[in-house]
Hints:
This protein is α+β, with helices and mostly antiparallel strands.
Amino acid sequence: MYRTHTCGELRAENIGTEVKLSGWVQKTRELGGMTFVDIRDRYGITQLVFDDSKNAQLAENAANLGREYVINIVGDVIERESKNKNIPTGEIEILVKQLIVLNESETPPFTIEDETDGGDELRMKYRYLDLRRSPLQKSLKLRHDMGIAIRNYLHKQGFYEIETPYLIKSTPEGARDFVVPSRMNENQFYALPQSPQTFKQLLMVAGYDKYFQIVKCFRDEDLRADRQPEFTQIDCEMAFVERDDILNVFEGLTKYLFKEVKGFEFEGDFQKMPYDTAMELYGSDKPDIRFDMKFVELTKTVANSGFVVFDSAEYVAGITAKGCSEYTRKQLDALTDFVKKPQIGAQGLVYCKYNEDGTLKSSVDKFFDADALKQWAEVMNAEPGDLMLILAGNKKKTQSALCELRLEMGKQLGLMNRNTFAPLWVVDFPLLEWNEDSKRFFAMHHPFTSPKPDDLHYFDSEPGRMKANAYDLVINGVEIGGGSIRIHDKDIQSKMFDTLGFSKEEANDQFGFLMNAFKYGAPPHGGVAFGFDRLVSLFAGFDSIRDTIAFPKNNSGRDVMIDSPSFIAKEQLDELNIQLKAKQ
RNA sequence: GGUCUGGUAGUUCAGUUGGUUAGAAUGCCGGCCUGUCACGCCGGAGGUCGCGAGUUCGAGUCUCGUCCAGACCGCCA
């Protein structure tokens, strides 16, 4: 037996008992005749004490312990002479009688402490050491707790967790597939699933009308702080439901998680906002509604002034930053530089200060007199003390630039509190997106998404006008997940493939199994998938999802600890009948 | 595919206009220290300035290339 207790549980009431502990050496503090050693496991830290005058050999052995040695001790719990109120075990210490070194350790390349001195690169290379640190252990515990809560909730609601295969079939739509060669089927490849989409629909056809799975998905696309090549979804599907049945269940799940795991309760129902409204008011399909600062369109208000930037613009809109009329020239220049960054892409920024004394000062006074500016203020709901920031140009680009500016102002004004949670459902997405390069429509969500029934008649006349019965859950400007009511009618599905430019043969080749299934009584169904990693990082207050994952990959999709991906032996390639091509 | 930022001691960083032997903190090693808990004090070791070219009398510093890491744009149904 290695231990009678963990390193985090001994308290004053244990004084006088003999205990056995195992753990890692956090730190040794030698004070001449006396040595203190902190022993750590995932439950906490306990102080060991060695007294030279009582056992000189033992004290010397203790003094020779290095950081991260794995040790096993037997000793008596005693009351500390000087207590430490900062840690739960601070009232007691262990007077050690026996010390066994279970394993020595090299000095780790960074300190195993809450605030480590290690940089990201090093921490990733030695991830198993990084994972010893308490913030990471808390993060993985949070992830575990959330997983359990999700399973409990959905189980109680009558859902079955059903596994679906990882080795599936490559399909042309959507993200790039990760591909796996098949040895037994020469020159053929499996693909790893981008999501279990078609399988969960087949489970609906099979009559498992409430399905879920906490499941890995794989997409071979470029990465970001909140994107990994393999990530985890809470994947769900229900049959005999309409949109609001699904929203209710998963709004319920979201509220349950916040309450169980964070002790946070939402008031009332989540807002439902049509996509068009989200774009108009926030310039984004995932608006951060922790703060207001909505867009106000000014295209008509500012028309025909002689200011060519506005006059020639398809779209002019602005936001009102409360209490910012005192912004200095330097701050305004910085905002202008911000919107002109290539990533933001605006040509310039027009501002108008509504001064405390009621006067108005804009960067375009040459073209607009006081009355005109007053009218801006009225339309934009600005009051003395406020600052109006206005962008103009192509509608789509200007909306997205103004969205970035709004978020930047929210950041500068401290309106994006990590402990505030503002959820909403964005609904009624466009069904299709026109792609200019390939001159064809793409499904905005995926090709199995049902059009809104009222829009079905546009299929032949104006497909681009159709709205989808699709929805996203957005919290604090993060897309937590989304879903849709699916097409369950083989004729509509076939029409959808037509519109997406699939020939009958292609559709049959790629998705024939689904169309076939739909011939045998497919129930109306729909579902949702939440990004589990993102949800955990939102709960943990992280900017990146990486520290919610035990072994994440870096920016380039590499695991720097195991050094993957890697080359494989020629024999392996031969067996797979694969020949590598030299890079051009 | 693109834009930007960074790479100097085990680690985190500083390093001026291109100029003597590249510094600090921390960690590590040795010594002292009986109530520390960021222990303290004294001493010591520790450097391919990412890599390769170039400019120069002289490059950590300037130029070009390249590799690595991070953030973002494109991309991610």
